[in-house]
Amino acid sequence: MGQADFAAQGWSALPTRAFSAAIGPIWARGEPGAREVCLACSDAVANDHMGMVHGGALMTFADIALGLAVVDAIGAPNCSTAQLHYNFAAGVKVGSLLVCAPEVVRRTRRMVFTRGLFRVGEETVGSADAIFNVFEPRAG
Questions:
Q1: Which CATH number fits domain 3-134: 3.10.129.10, 3.90.1720.10, 3.40.50.2300, 3.40.50.720?
Q2: Ranges for the Thioesterase domain (predicted)?
């Protein structure tokens, strides 16, 4: 699927840079706090010879997807991952569209607890829970 195809389905590319950009474009649709996040699983995230997506890429996507829910909840990107647990339920083939609808489970002043199911089509291929630290915004 190309950019025009994603746009036609309501997806917008998220701004990514540095390490987050390594797995490819990340797409989101919906309103903040109720978004879906998507990764088009290309050869760039393949487990070299198997035609399957590398587990590290799945966990990176999980971190980004759940982190987006935190940014939506606190209104700024002033957070870092304290803990991430990913359950691999099924393999993900290269060429798949991996989608997550992340949610905030609980929020305190300094921490946000999140979870999400990861699916390809109607099949759940993974689940994740994460805790994020929230920092005070930097001055100036």
A1: 3.10.129.10
A2: 50-125
